[in-house]
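Summary of Year 1 activities. Much of the first year was spent building the evaluation harness for sequence design. The harness presents a backbone, in tokenized form, and records the residue chosen at every position. We chose the following record to illustrate the format because it has been used consistently in internal testing since the harness was completed.
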């Protein structure tokens, strides 16, 4: 079976699965975050996490509806009951675990520092520089913890800080290495200056965010992640977007 046919089957199953209960409202960050989530010309969501969501909902035999929520309001929306789960490249961190629960991880990729090729920027030479980060992210947390001598400038979306880097309004930006792929392909004057690591800040990877009391839902997501990892669906989805194992070590 080809990757294309597997993904088609997953999408069909997600649409036709008989729900055991009311629809599960899945929160996507409203802002584009390719290759994980983005809307095509027809206004339809597509990307790795879109296909992953379809596969998980099919494995759970649940109907799932997507709700667009601004990134910085996505946890409040979950706690207020506007959504039931977050599938939006949200890293599992100790700080977030104080407020919400997470499934097991479903991918893990490193964070990086990106700056112009012509600069001498490095992770050890950020003093006096302006570093752009998306607000309410682990990348903001990392920059504030490790780049104390720099001015940290926050942005509502990932694209906004990339635009300011191109325009020279910031000296560097911090974000997910894979999310930078499209930007770096279109910005030949930019490059990755350093891969960043801090287990305390970045956590073990990305998971599905849920309310702490929704333990049954967490068990369902964990079982679904385990199932699609075991039956090859996860690998088929990953290979459609990446030339490496997105699950990570």
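For this record, the design step produced the sequence shown next.
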């Amino acid at each position: 079976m080809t990757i294309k046919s597997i993904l088609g089957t997953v999408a069909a199953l997600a649409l036709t699965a008989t729900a055991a209960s009311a629809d599960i409202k899945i929160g996507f960050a409203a802002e584009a975050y390719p290759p994980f989530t983005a809307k095509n010309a027809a206004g339809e969501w597509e990307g790795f996490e879109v296909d992953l969501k379809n596969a998980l909902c099919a494995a759970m035999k649940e109907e799932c509806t997507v709700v667009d929520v601004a990134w910085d309001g996505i946890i409040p929306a979950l706690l207020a009951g506007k959504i039931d789960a977050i599938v939006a490249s949200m890293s599992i961190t100790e700080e977030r675990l104080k407020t919400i629960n997470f499934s097991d991880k479903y991918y893990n990729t490193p964070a990086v520092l990106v700056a112009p090729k012509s600069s001498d920027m490095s992770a050890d030479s950020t003093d006096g520089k302006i570093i752009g980060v998306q607000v309410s992210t682990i990348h903001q947390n990392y920059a504030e913890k490790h780049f104390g001598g720099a001015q940290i400038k926050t942005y509502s979306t990932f694209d906004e800080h990339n635009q300011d880097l191109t325009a020279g309004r910031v000296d560097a930006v911090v974000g997910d290495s894979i999310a930078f792929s499209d930007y770096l392909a279109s910005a030949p004057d930019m490059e990755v200056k350093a891969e960043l690591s801090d287990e305390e800040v970045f956590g073990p990877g990305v998971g599905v965010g849920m309310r702490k009391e929704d333990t049954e839902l967490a068990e369902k997501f964990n079982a679904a992640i385990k199932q699609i990892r075991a039956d090859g669906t996860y690998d088929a989805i990953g290979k459609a977007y990446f030339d490496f194992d997105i699950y990570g070590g």
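Residues 215-230 form the longest helix (16 residues). Quantitative recovery figures across the full test set are reported in Table 2.
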